[in-house]
Specification:
By secondary structure, this protein is of the alpha/beta class. Helices cover about 30% and strands about 20% of the residues. It has an 8-stranded parallel β-barrel, surrounded by 5 helices. It binds D-xylitol-5-phosphate and zinc ion.
Length: about 220
């Protein structure tokens, strides 16, 4: 059984009581927090930014993955690092020079990750696999929570897993979008090691602990 990380997407948290949601995610057994930043340009919506990360950072010891759904995210690497970001996930589609963006994340002290949208092929990200800590395969169109998982993204997860194993790389594969107990096993079987889940975690009728247990059960056969 491989290590499986559960990352709670705060987009589905109660924004009026964000501190409670952050603490509940940690107490409920999540391994990481996922902080969705949208700029109203790369994606149609606008969400949260540096001041909100600064506000929640002292409340938890969990690592924070900053998911930048923002054009030219490298401009903000230092600001998010100073605010306490641990992983800096950028979209390959949003960067003119993705290698420079990866370098900016590392220089700022964060672990760089690169994400691909549903329409972006694995071949685009393949040359970067040796330079990043994590690949994020979007399993919905980025821009909103609560959408349905796209199973047609699973071959991309398998392909990245196959390529990185073949090259002896230890790049972690994450999936984001529509991840719940019912969809997680397919993603894990395909090679995902980090499950990012918003409504699956914060919207679970049994609470966060039950949600996390249900997601971890996806690893049972792995
Ligand atoms: C979507 C975001 C996701 C979102 C996932 O653009 O990147 O992190 O919060 O939400 P669910 O788990 O509800 O699909
Ligand atoms: Zn996200």
């Amino acid at each position: 059984m491989r290590n499986l990380k559960i990352s709670a997407s705060l987009l589905a948290a109660d924004f009026a009581h964000l501190a409670d949601s952050v603490r509940a995610a940690e107490e409920g057994g999540c391994d990481e927090l996922h902080f969705d930043v949208m700029d109203g340009h790369f994606v149609p919506n606008i969400t949260v930014g540096v001041p909100v990360l600064e506000a929640i950072r002292p409340l938890t010891r969990l690592p924070v993955d900053v998911h930048m759904m923002v054009d030219e995210p490298g401009r903000f690497a230092e600001a998010f690092a100073d605010a306490g970001g641990d992983i800096f996930t950028v979209h390959i589609e949003a960067c003119k020079d993705v290698r420079a963006t990866i370098e900016a994340a590392r220089a700022a002290g964060m672990r760089p990750a690169v994400s691909i949208k549903p329409a972006t092929p694995v071949s685009d990200i393949e040359p970067l696999l040796g330079s990043i800590d994590r690949v994020l395969v979007m399993t919905v169109e980025p821009g909103a929570g609560g959408q349905s998982f796209m199973p047609e993204m699973l071959p991309k997860v398998r392909e990245i897993q196959r390529i990185s194993a073949g090259r002896g790389l230890d790049v972690e594969i994450a999936v984001d979008g529509g991840i719940k107990a019912g969809t997680a096993p397919q993603a894990v079987q395909a090679g995902a090691r980090t499950l990012i889940s918003g409504t699956g975690v914060f919207g679970h009728p049994g609470g966060i602990r039950a949600a996390v247990d249900a997601l971890r059960a996806a690893n049972a056969g792995g």
